[in-house]
Each structure stands twice: as C-alpha cells, then as structure tokens.
Amino acid sequence: MISLWLESIAPEIILVLLGGILVLLDAFVPRLRPAFSWVTLGGVLLALVTRWSIGIPGAVWEGVLAVDSLGRFVDTYILVACGLALLMADPYLSRTNARYGEYFGLLLWAAVGAMTMAKANHLLVVFMGL
C-alpha cells in the first residue's frame, strides 16, 4: 500500500527535488551553470524511467490520484516535451550568453504541475496542479 502511493508520485518527487537543488546551486555555486541542462535532462529521463516502472493501475491517496494508462501516456508526453524544451533551450541560452539557472527549475516545476493535473481525480488536485 505504502509503496504504491510512493511509486505513484515518485517522478514528481524526483523533479521537485532536482528543481530545488538546481535553484540552490544557481544561487550559491554559479560556476556549475553550464552543466545544468544535462543534469536536468538526466533527471527528466530518470523520471520517465520511474514513470514506466509503475505497474499496478488504480486510485491512490484516497482516490484523488488515478494511476492508469492514460496518466502514464500524458506523463510520458509531458516529460518528452520537457526534454525537447531542454535540448532546444541549451543552444539558445549559450548563444545569447544568458545562463539563467532558474529556467531549469521552473521548467521542472511546471512539468510537475502538468503531471499532477494529468493524474488528478479530484477538482482540488487539478487546482493544486495549476
């Protein structure tokens, strides 16, 4: 039971923690900014693998989140779009010499919100995902 509800939000936990770490590293260790895009892409791929490792469909968290094939498909779509946005943003940020580390954290947090809305089974969770 506990493992199912932890597995159901594991990709979101990965992305939220990685976003927080990247924002903190940007604030305190700015020389690591060139590696942020690849670290973020690795986190997105890890979240994608974690999403596909969940096998048991059903409702978790007292029925407010639905773990089903539609949610898995939408989460995969969101994570692939996030990865493509990262791959397209890196050359642009390098060309304009605008290495903003908060971009990567905000992108991950926006993906978490979209993933939460995709799995929502309750109107309040949809609002929280916004």
UniProtKB/TrEMBL annotation:
Keyword presence, Membrane: yes
Keywords: Membrane, Transmembrane, Transmembrane helix
Keyword Transmembrane helix belongs to the record: yes
Transmembrane segment boundaries: 12-29, 36-54, 74-94, 106-128
Protein name according to UniProt: NADH-quinone oxidoreductase subunit N
Protein's organism: Thermoanaerobaculum aquaticum
